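Progress narrative, Year 2. Work on HNH endonuclease family protein from Saccharothrix lopnurensis advanced from sequence curation to structure prediction during this period.
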Amino acid sequence: MFRRTAAALAALLLTVTGCDAVGGLPDVAPGGGATVDRVPQGTPDAPTARNLLAGLPLAEPGRMEGYARDCDNGAGCVFGRPWVDTDGDGCDQRSQVLARDLTDVRRKEGRCGVESGTLLDPYTGETATGVSKIQIDHVVPLAEMWRSGAAGWPQDRRVAAANDLRNLIAVAGRVNQSKGDQTPDEWMPPNAAYACQYGRVYVGVKAEYGLTVTSAERAALERALTSCG
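Result:
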């Protein structure tokens, strides 16, 4: 009886998520969602991430003076306009991330923009449909980049960092809103099964751009990477 029930549950998960994990079906994560073992290409593995984390310089957060995301009416626009087509292939970064992270992707007719698809959200382990409900998260928030080193960069480096696919993950809009500009000592994905992957992405980006960390941030990232096993 138990085996039949488990098989039925597995079949239901496949129907809902529309994708297979290694071994056939996604595992069930804490909270009832599905485990998502997905990171952007270029993310360091756990041992490398631990070494990179140890090498990140410690510093208190810099001031937010001068930080402005708004690009309209002469505003600061310190990271450039959102979703630049950095590689010149005709597809902006938002569209590229949606196409990479969603399944059953349907593009707008004659365009690269994604019209629909299904997301297995790594932050919650839940399924989201409808592109309007999906947002692109900067794993290392842009405000955090600013206060940990980017304030002193030239504009073109900030634009490149803001559109770096290694720092971008498609997630449910509501969880992205709850995160805001918080660092790992303040916020981690509700899906505890994604702590390792989240830490790896975060550390990889901070190391790539030579950004600093606080002692509390480093401790939280060490805990996240410990969960990698």
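Residues 2-17 form the longest helix (16 residues). Residues 27-226 form one domain.
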